[in-house]
Amino acid sequence: MRRPIIGIAANEIEDAGARLYHLPISYTPCGYVKAVQNAGGLPMVLPVGPPELAKDYIDQIDKLVLAGGQNVSPSLYGESIQVEEALLSQERDQFELALIEEAVRQTKPIFAVCRGLQLANVALGGSLYQDISQLNDTKISHMQVPISREIPTHQIRTEETSILRKIYGEKTTVNSFHFQAIKKLAKRLKMTAISEDGIIEGVESKDSSLAFLGVQWHPDFAYDHLEQEMAVFRYVVEKL
Ligand code: MN
After folding, report:
1. 3-class DSSP state of 202
2. What is the tens place of the pLDDT at every residue in 139-168?
3. Which of 22, 31, 151, 202 gets the highest tally of CB atoms within 10 A of its CB?
4. How many domains is the chain built from?
C-alpha cells in the first residue's frame, strides 16, 4: 500500500551567522518529519511560496500539516498589532491561508499545531487573543521557556467522544509555547481540549465534510519522549 503523503507547510529563517553566514533557509522542524516517517507516512515539506501554487501542492498530498512559528497577523481577524515585537510573516500567512482554503475545498485532512491551529481558526472565520498573559490572572504560564521543550508543564482536559480523548485520555499534561490563543472559535470547529485557566488547547471539526485536528501544544517537540505525542502523529497518518 502506498504511504500517505503528508505535506508539511514550511517556515523561513535566516541562519544566525555562525555556520552559514546569514543564509536565508527554508525549513520545518525535524520533529514533524521524523514523527511522520515513524508513523509510516511520507513527509513532503512545502516551502513558502506564492498563494497561486497552493492548488498544485494540495493536489500532490493526502493530508496537510500546519506547523508552529510566527504570530498570525492581527489584520487577518480585523485588529491592529497590540503586542511589542510581534514576530509576523505576511508571506507565510498568505501562502498557508491558500493551502488551508484549497485543502478544505479538496476535503483533505488538516493537522494544525500551535500557530497552525491559530491560523486555521482565523481562516475559518474565528479570532485570536494576541497575548494571553495580559488577560490571564491565574498562575498558569503558557510560555514555558526555559523549561525543556519535551517536558509537559500544564494540564488539559479533553472532551468526551473527541479524537483527543481517545489519544490522551480525560486529563493529561502538555508542553506550552504560545502567547496567542483562540478567542472566538470558528463556526465549523469545536473545542475538544481546554486548560485549567480556560484557554482552548484542542480543536476538532464539527462537520463531516472537514477533517480537522488542531492542538495548541507541540507534539513535534516531544514525539520521541512521550508515547501520546507520537500517538497523535500515528492518528494523523493512519486515520485523520
Ligand atoms: Mn498552553
Report:
1. strand
2. 789 999 999 999 999 999 999 999 999 999
3. 202
4. 1
